[in-house]
From TrEMBL:
<protein>
    <recommendedName>
        <fullName>Membrane-associated progesterone receptor component 1</fullName>
    </recommendedName>
</protein>
<keyword id="KW-0492">Microsome</keyword>
<keyword id="KW-0256">Endoplasmic reticulum</keyword>
<dbReference type="InterPro" id="IPR050577">
    <property type="entry name" value="MAPR/NEUFC/NENF-like"/>
</dbReference>
<feature type="region of interest" description="Disordered">
    <location>
        <begin position="190"/>
        <end position="211"/>
    </location>
</feature>
<feature type="compositionally biased region" description="Low complexity">
    <location>
        <begin position="1"/>
        <end position="16"/>
    </location>
</feature>
<comment type="subunit">
    <text>Homodimer. Forms stable homodimer through hydrophobic heme-heme stacking interactions. Interacts with FECH; the interaction results in decreased FECH activity. Interacts with EGFR, CYP1A1 and CYP3A4; the interactions require PGRMC1 homodimerization. Interacts with TMEM97 and LDLR; the interaction increases LDL internalization.</text>
</comment>
<keyword id="KW-0812">Transmembrane</keyword>
<keyword id="KW-0472">Membrane</keyword>
<dbReference type="InterPro" id="IPR001199">
    <property type="entry name" value="Cyt_B5-like_heme/steroid-bd"/>
</dbReference>
<feature type="region of interest" description="Disordered">
    <location>
        <begin position="1"/>
        <end position="20"/>
    </location>
</feature>
<comment type="similarity">
    <text>Belongs to the cytochrome b5 family. MAPR subfamily.</text>
</comment>
<dbReference type="Pfam" id="PF00173">
    <property type="entry name" value="Cyt-b5"/>
</dbReference>
<feature type="transmembrane region" description="Helical">
    <location>
        <begin position="42"/>
        <end position="60"/>
    </location>
</feature>
<dbReference type="InterPro" id="IPR036400">
    <property type="entry name" value="Cyt_B5-like_heme/steroid_sf"/>
</dbReference>
<keyword id="KW-0675">Receptor</keyword>
<feature type="compositionally biased region" description="Acidic residues">
    <location>
        <begin position="194"/>
        <end position="203"/>
    </location>
</feature>
Length: 211
């Protein structure tokens, strides 16, 4: 490729006629071929990088940006990182309210009678988060009615008996989403209901299912 270019250069300066023009044409053809060959490799590399970035972006969207399911922001250490996994137990409403993120780093909430540890989503459920109103509370009614007002949450046990079929289906769908994303740590107790005794084996089994 180098000698072709030199021939083209010499021919052009010394003899602008036939042989020089042919040499010049050959040089341009060689240069074009080199450009196409190099360009093809470059395009392949760009395509491979794009595929890798697309895969990484999809994972990020799935696990990092799912609204209610997202964790703490980039560069910030999540409070969940310094906490051990909570042993399975049942909670009364009063006990649940102790885990609102203001008295302890751990944040719990209940959905459809199930209590979930949402500490790794503290950016959303912490005191300053957009869904902080649900922390330490039964979030079922608020999620079912898409209401973030305190009026949507009852201070006493909420049996949800006044919700319609569509709203109850929404509650069940939210429950499934929380099961996929967060640790299930126990039941929300009805008034007068006794807590269950969970063995270490049951606790480990439930955590392994979630992992």
């Amino acid at each position: 490729l180098g000698s072709g270019s030199e021939s083209s250069s010499d021919g052009s300066s010394e003899s602008p006629g036939g042989a020089g023009a042919a040499a010049e044409g050959g040089g341009w053809a060689a240069a074009a071929l080199a450009l196409l060959t190099g360009g093809g490799e470059m395009l392949l590399n760009v395509a491979l990088v794009a595929l890798v970035l697309l895969g990484a972006y999809r994972l990020w969207v799935r696990w990092g940006r799912r609204g209610l399911g997202a964790g703490a922001g980039a560069g910030e250490e999540s409070p969940a990182a310094s906490l051990s996994r909570m042993k399975k137990r049942d909670f009364s409403l009063e006990q649940l309210r102790q885990y609102d993120g203001s008295r302890t780093p751990r944040i719990l909430l209940a959905v459809n009678g199930k209590v979930f540890d949402v500490t790794k989503g503290s950016k959303f459920y912490g005191p300053a988060g957009p869904y902080g109103i649900f922390a330490g509370r039964d979030a079922s009614r608020g999620l079912a009615t898409f209401c973030l007002d305190k009026d949507a949450l009852k201070d006493e046990y909420d049996d949800l008996s006044d919700l319609n079929a569509v709203q109850m289906e929404s509650v069940r769908e939210w429950e499934m989403q929380f099961k996929e994303k967060y640790d299930y740590v126990g039941r929300l107790l009805k008034p007068g209901e006794e807590p269950s005794e969970y063995t270490d084996e049951e606790d480990t089994k439930d955590h392994n299912k979630q992992d």
